[in-house]
Amino acid sequence: MLVLTNSDVSTLLGSLKSSDILSILSVLALALGNSSINQPPRQAIQHPHPSCTTTLLMPTATPSAFSIKILSLEASPTSSQRTSPKGSIFLFSSDGSLDAVLNASAVTGFRTALACMIPFSIRFLPHVLPSQSSSSCAPPPLSEVLIFGAGLQAEWTIRLLLILCNHADIPLPKITIINRTLPRAQSLITTTTNWLASNPLSKFPVPDLQCTTNNTPSLKALLTTADAIFCCTPSHDPLFPASHLLVPVTPPKTRFISAIGSYKPAMKELDPDLLISPGGFGNCIMVDTREGCLVGAGEIIAAQQRKGEPLELYELGSEWKSGDWEKYRKNNVLYKSVGTGVMDLAVGQELVKLSRERLYGN
Fold this sequence. Notes:
Layout lengths: L1 E3 L1 H10 L2 H15 L10 E4 L6 E9 L3 E10 L11 E8 L4 E6 H21 L19 E5 L3 H16 L6 E6 L2 H17 L10 E5 L5 H7 L2 E4 L11 H4 L9 E4 L13 H4 L8 E3 L2 H7 L1 H10 L5 E3 H7 L3 H5 L2 E4 L4 H18 L4
Parallel strand pairs: 1-6, 7-8, 7-10, 8-9, 10-11, 11-14, 12-13, 12-14
Antiparallel strand pairs: 2-3, 3-4, 4-5, 5-6
């Protein structure tokens, strides 16, 4: 049995090459599209008052393996901030033998960001995925990207975005990090710059990395010009009003939004009006799990309540596998994730394989 501590996992993830990332992304995409996987709904256990901790249990089974993640998240009762998630991923063989235990903190941030690169690639980088699109519609341009948040999900979103753009041989976009506190955003820029220095992306110059705060007067202008917006915060309130993106612009443009930071009904990274207003994102809502988002995604729950009828949700696994991607390049696209057990199993198995090859863990 292999045991990987948080230090082991973080060191391994930090050592991954672009080829490793692309290989794990392909495995994850194939796993999400695998109809033989049994993935029961995750169970959330709220710890008794006065604790503000929620523990999540996420089991997943395939014909050859089984996993369960136990993850605890502690939030302040007076703010949207939370500590880093703590827990473990247990990987079993099909006969029930325990094969490996991984600290879940670093894995969770990495696998969540990696999964959002699948709909991102469907829109902007189709040849990155292990499938060829049947669409003749060319991908839209990618010049400006916004990242809300400065934690582990945001850090991996930036790294993966740069790696995939470099691999696809397209110029690296300008990236603006937007966070409640400027020092945290500046620290993420420093971390990313140091990572680039040790893992240079040779095809293009160092990307333009900027940062600002949520209350910047230029927020509307930044949103207006953005091609892709990544929300990586456990916010209870929308990060920006829907009106900032619903105003027509000349020339007309559509956008891609990924919302991966919130995971409870009371949390809303996005204004629900974005999902139900004309010219919004209601026609192309892609989710990691339909069942999970209907009970755990605050934006979707609130939008359906306001609309008075269900929203049409497209599951990520079946959508990328279909190859029918034209609508995801021509329209506004929202990807909403609350996390799934198959992500943990697929990514966990790949990390265990690499750890054994490279002698990480005990």
